[in-house]
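User: Can you predict the 3D structure for this chain?
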Amino acid sequence: MIFNQLFDVKSSTYTYIIASDKGREALIIDPVIESTEEYLNLLNELNLKLVKVIDTHIHADHVTGLNELSKRTNCTKIMGEKSKSEVVDIKVKEDDKVKIDNIELKTIYTPGHTDCSYSFLMNDRVFTGDTLLINGTGRTDFQNGNAEDQYDSLFNKLLKLPEKTLVYPAHDYNGKKFSTIESEKKNNPRLQVNSISQYVDIMNNLNLANPKMMDIAVPANVKGLTLNQL
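Assistant: Here is the predicted structure, written as C-alpha cells:
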C-alpha cells in the first residue's frame, strides 16, 4: 500500500494520500489548497489516478484543496452528510464505505469539534480529523461545536476501537505524526475525566483565540473556492 502523510507548516495540517500500489487509484484526505501542486506532482511520480478526495469537516484554519483537486483531476468530492459544503459530490453517513481498488474506509460520524465532523476507519488506522488529536481534542466553541457531542464521539465511538488502532489526525502542533487509541486513553490529558460534565467543563473553559484564517477559510470552504477565486 502507498501511504503518504504530508504536512502544511502554515496551518499544521496533515494531508494523507492513499493508494493500493503504483499505477492505481488514489484518494486524498484533508488537502490544503496551497499544496495542490505538491499533491499532483506526487501523484504523477507514482503514476496514481486521483479518484476521490475527502474532507473530514469544514476547516476553519485553512482553505481546502478539495474543489481545486476536483477541477484538476475530475476526482469525486466526499464529505459527511452534515457538511454545509456547496460543492460536495457524495455525502456519506454513519457506517458508509468509501472504496478505491481493494482499500475500504468506513465512515464514523464524530461531531463535537463541528457538527459536520466525520472520522474514517481503514483497517489498522483511523483518520480522526480534529475530533481526536494527539494528546488533545479539537475545540468545540464554533461551527456548531458541542462538548457533549464530542465526549460521545470520543468515549462511545473512537476510544472503543481496538487499542492498537493507529490515530492519524488532521493537525498536530508538536511534530508528532501519529498515535494509537491505547496511547490516547493513557496519555491524552483531556481524556482523563470521570464524567461528561468534567469533559464539558474543560472544553468550555479553554478560552482560545479564533483561528487567524477563520473568517476567510470557513466561507471559502463552504463555497468550494478554487485557486483563481481566492
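The chain has a mean pLDDT of 96. Residues 115 and 144 are 5 Å apart (CA to CA).
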